[in-house]
Specification:
This protein has about 250 residues and is mostly helical. It has eleven helices and four strands. The chain has a two-stranded antiparallel ribbon. Strand 3 and strand 4 form a beta hairpin.
Length: about 250
């Protein structure tokens, strides 16, 4: 999971969402959830709202339109960060929409939305906060450790440490290492095309969180220990030109 910049909606889509939200708001309290669900599933909504909304989310998503939670699978679903069943008034709220894979949306997260003692969400919204403030990725294992209560809840609800994801992150680290070395070789030869290809390969693979974590940990205390098996990778990840290229998306 990485920080994702939320873009502005096209005026037409924004207006359609506002109209639908008003219809939910105008419904009596007890009937709002049913109204919101019916409006969300309506054929006209699917055509005029789901399609352009999905396009906006895909443009924001990491890699090749990957899930904003696990980062592995293609994002196929519009997820309501705060579930419709809990707060139907946010059904058509752009700030409440994320792109998720079907596993994260329908199998793991579903209607789970844990709250703290002050009724604040205990799930990380990657478009509103930096997940790395709450999560530490152990690169050698592909395993997340929580730094905060919010990090712990997000790991549990989204099942961020399921074995398949851990193996994928370890593999992703190997790909980043390979591409970083390829970038360095191309740089020595002043081969701009090969440099760009190395960067694109990293940016378009699943698990964008791995590269992001590597870049951060390369500049953190204890970096020499984290990268003790590959000191040349550490040196490259500290290179300003390469860092700028990898963070350019």
């Amino acid at each position: 999971m990485i920080r994702i910049a939320r873009t502005a909606l096209p005026p037409g889509l924004s207006g359609r969402l506002a109209t639908l939200a008003q219809q939910v708001s105008d419904t009596d309290h007890d009937g709002r959830a049913a109204t919101a669900r019916d409006l969300w599933k309506h054929t006209t909504t699917r055509r005029n709202v789901h399609v352009p909304l999905s396009e906006c989310l895909r443009q924001m998503a990491p890699g090749l339109e990957q899930c904003m939670y696990c980062g592995e699978d293609e994002g196929t679903d519009i997820d309501h960060f705060e579930p419709l069943a809990r707060n139907p008034l946010r059904t058509f709220d752009w700030l409440n929409h994320l792109l998720a894979c079907s596993t994260c949306n329908s199998h793991n997260k579903r209607n789970q939305f844990p709250l703290d003692a002050d009724d604040q969400p205990l799930l990380i919204d990657p478009t509103a906060e930096d997940p790395f403030d709450h999560l530490l990725l152990t690169l050698s294992l592909g395993h997340y450790e929580p730094l905060t209560t919010k990090g712990k809840a997000t790991i549990e609800v989204c099942e961020l440490n399921r074995p398949l994801l851990e193996r994928g992150r370890v593999r992703s680290r190997r790909v980043v290492n390979y591409c970083v070395r390829a970038w360095a070789s191309a740089h020595r030869e002043s081969n701009a095309k090969a440099m760009a290809e190395a960067v694109t390969t990293v940016q378009e693979q699943p698990f964008a969180d791995v590269c992001q974590a590597m870049l951060r940990q390369a500049q953190s205390p204890g970096a020499e220990i984290v990268f003790s098996d590959s000191p040349e990778i550490l040196a490259l990840l500290r290179d300003p030109e390469l860092r700028d290229a990898l963070l350019s998306r």
